[in-house]
Amino acid sequence: MRVLPSAGRRRMTRRVTWLSVGSLGAITVFAVIAPLLAPYDATLPIGIPLAAPFGDTGLFGTDQVGRDILSRVLEGMSASWLASAGLVLPIASFGSLVGVVAGYLGGWADRALMAVVDFFLALPAAILAVVIAAVLGPSLRNALIAIGVLSWPYYARLVRAEIRAIASRPHIEAAKLAGNGHLRLVLRHLLPGAWPVILVTVTLDLGGVITMLAGLSFLGLGRPEPAPELGSMAAQGLPYLLTHWWIPVIPAVAVTCLALIANLAGDALRSQMKAQ
Amino acid sequence: MSTDELTSDPGPIASVRDLVVTFHRDGADLYALRGVSLDVRAGEVLAVVGESGSGKSVLGSALIGLLPSNLRELGGEVIVDGADMLRGPERVRRRVRRLSLGAVFQDPMSSLNPTQRIGRQLFEVTGSDDESVRLLDAVGVPDARRRLRSYPHELSGGLRQRVMIALATAGDVKLLIADEPTTALDVSVQAQILELFRELCDRLGLAVFFVTHDLGVASELADRIVVMYGGRVAEVGTSRDVLVNPSHPYTRALQRARLTLETDRAREVVALPGEPPDPSTVIRGCPFGPRCGHHAPACDDGLPDLRPSATTGARTACVRADELSAIPTGSLQGDTLAPMPGLPGRAPVVEVRQARKSYVLGRGRQAATVHALDGVDLSVGANESLSIVGLSGCGKSTLLRAIAGLLPLDSGTIAYNGESRPQIVFQDAGASLTPWLTLGELIGERLRGSGLSKRARAEAVAETMRRVGLSPKLASAKPGQLSGGQRQRAAIARAVVVPPSLLLCDEPTSALDVSLAATALNMLAELRRELGMAMLFVTHDLAAARLVGDRIVVMENGRIVESGPTDEVVARPRHDLTRQLLAAVPGSPSHRGVA
């Protein structure tokens, strides 16, 4: 049985973790500045349609209308990353807040909040989506509202369980004796213990939401043409798959990369937390 | 017994030769055993005594042939009943385990299957209910036939351990391996279980390999004692030799640090300086060298081997043992403690009146009300030290938490006339520190709102850390980076950084090794005198209670059953429980042990 020298192995797992977490941060920065990096306007044709990649017209060539694929992909990645983060973070924050309050207070407050959570968990997703569509009208924004309403309870459950486990540890009694108020007790002695779980879940959710949004956009539920959306770009380019493969494949690869990085980062974080 | 050995030596049932075990965990090599040789003879109780990390439990696992798989190095030989338990074929090792070995561990609840009735679990090894009943009878389980239908959770801790022993002694077992089997039990139950081991050994001719951290427990039943230190055997000999005339400086230090009913209350306990060696460090000289008061250059020339003692029949791994044997064990005495001035004119620090607190356990038809506090009256004078003694579940910890204001009472009053809120030193000091905060943050927390500047607070933290013997450099360390002794010090520092008028101690030493426990008791006594604190000391150990307390209060089932000045309670106990607790202290007149 040959194993890697221990110190080296440890250093390597740590490196993988920082690599993945670092790439999450890098992608977010990239998403913010991507539109500035785009060489051309993503909505206007720049030359002949169907130009091949690495040729004279655009780095990744042009699409069926003659727009620069590189610029469209950059802006599309930026949009889907920011949209997923913009969807997951409020959901995670709200759910975690409910979980912390329920887990810390316990007693009837806990039972009441968890009853609400159970109510939302019991709602059938498909029917809720139909109801929201019926009331607010069918649109992407309303679909996202439906997703938000359905997913915060998972965070609430998760965080409540974590907080309750930490709250039963002796260090909480000691912290109370040290004269900490409720807010300080929660922020310094309880919440940091639940951070790992929240962080891992958020990261993994990011990957899921990216593919889901791309799927919705693929089905025509995203922003309308000519807005650069990775899902709709792939859908519009699909008829050219056999003749001009780069038009649908490049945006699809971009989606896969984003989701893959988020999932890898989540997994790496999780194994790092487990090791501690 | 030594004459027995001369006339008919039955030969060892198990023998260990030059056993070296190195584990690999979290990127570090842990040297669990650094070359150990010993024999277990048929019909003897061999007690293996050592602090945590000394390798005593690993030795037990090696005898069973069940070492963890994260081995880095494995050397030497372990033979049990003629079979090689380290490298022999798994089939042979399994046969030895099934036929010749029995094992009993600290927590019977996790060794028994919680989903099966006792009878079913016994049936697996006995093959008949009649045999199961006979076994249960033999280990003193009353009403054995009816007990076969019980689940493990329906039995008390003591009964569960008896069932485990019955399971372990089924068939033609020759060697019983017991790893801290009484540590989780109450002192009075502990004495009965120890008696059972002794009896089984005498009646069935079993060899018992008994692992314990407590020299007192070993003294109660062992024929021979092996003292382990830093993965090596420090001393091995008959109980009398090791306990009465210890020849290794470590054994001597352990003996001195042991609390008895004769320990001088006006002096500090003679504690061992320093801490046990870190298992991840390579040791080149005597493992005990850095803590030894008789350390000489010759001690650093390689790991010392066992050699026969000049004065007793024991063998000792100390190159200076012969020179040292001239120095009597009792010649060292601790420093005299300054007398604690009583403050008779002052009002009591805390007065508890008719405190009641009950819990409802279980649900529905099985719900039962437990009266944790059932009308407790108690007061602690300014500067006074009061010990509360009782078995687990007697309400002593509930009382402590109520006084600290962590638990509301059902009825009754607690009047606290102190300056700063009472602080608790918890049983598990490590767990009472928030793992993601630094020591500086944790200790400094109670200084917030004191009006001190940030710099003045940091200075106060450093001052307190020095006071408890921690380097102020550790202020930026997190609890996980510290040793057990350091965590204990940090927890105490946090409690006294703003000295409370009343310091509450919840069994602060019961989770610590002997040498660390003595250090902690000395530190508490010293801090109490320097800072002028009253103290409430909760324990199940009457020897510790006697040492710490000016008065002793004995609790049972949420009530105070006896109270009085310490000397009075120890000399003339009136309640049965007090007498039981006294008898549980090694070396007490009613005690059966060797020393």
TrEMBL record, chain B:
InterPro entries: AAA+_ATPase, ABC_Ni/Peptide_Import, ABC_transporter-like_ATP-bd, ABC_transporter-like_CS, Oligopep_ABC_C, P-loop_NTPase. It comes from the Bacteria. The keyword Methyltransferase does not apply. The keyword ATP-binding applies. Residues 16-255, 350-582 form the ABC transporter domain. GO terms for molecular function: ATP binding; ATP hydrolysis activity. GO terms for cellular component: plasma membrane. Its main location: membrane. It is a peripheral membrane protein. Keywords: ATP-binding, Cell membrane, Membrane, Nucleotide-binding, Transport. One of its GO terms (biological process) is peptide transport. It holds the Pfam family oligo_HPY. It is found in: Cell membrane. CDD domains: ABC_NikE_OppD_transporters (cd03257). Belongs to the ABC transporter superfamily. PANTHER family: DIPEPTIDE TRANSPORT ATP-BINDING PROTEIN DPPD (PTHR43297:SF2), OLIGOPEPTIDE TRANSPORT ATP-BINDING PROTEIN APPD (PTHR43297). This is ABC transporter ATP-binding protein. It comes from Acrocarpospora phusangensis. The gene is oppD.
